[in-house]
């Protein structure tokens, strides 16, 4: 009798664990995050502050921080492979653009006509990918782009980050030139699933 009760409890616990795991995967995918079997967990939360008037540049449909909203932060990114999945977003690297200040790798602004990118914090890897090239594959095409900046996954909602939220952990933030090279129609620029690799 005790054995039957134990078996029933064990089966119930297994069912709950499987159900919870499926629910968590679905929730991650619904929020645009790609679950990575136990890798790159959130490192914390950041409380949003309302930007001062006229201080958040919404070029390229950039989001501005909301007062009191909590944003997830990451100190890591998914593992890099020859086929690393990512979300391609759009960013201006020019003075006055939505990218904020000069890029981290050379402290300069760069033309949006050049194929350049910022990588999420973990992929930027403490500047180890600075000035190196990656190959981005999407929309049936590929493009070679230079890494110039970090898309900060650990901080945001301040003047250094143009009062925008922290970057997700799986982003390649690209200039207009990258989107053009991938043959994406301009009215579809914004977010797209891609994969990338070190060149």
TrEMBL record:
Family of this protein: Belongs to the kiwellin family.
GO cellular component labels: extracellular region
Any matching Pfam family: KWL1
Primary localization: secreted
Organism: Hibiscus trionum (Flower of an hour)
Protein name, as recorded: Ripening-related protein 1
Keywords (A to Z) from UniProt: Secreted, Signal
Cleavable signal peptide: 1-27
Localization per record: Secreted
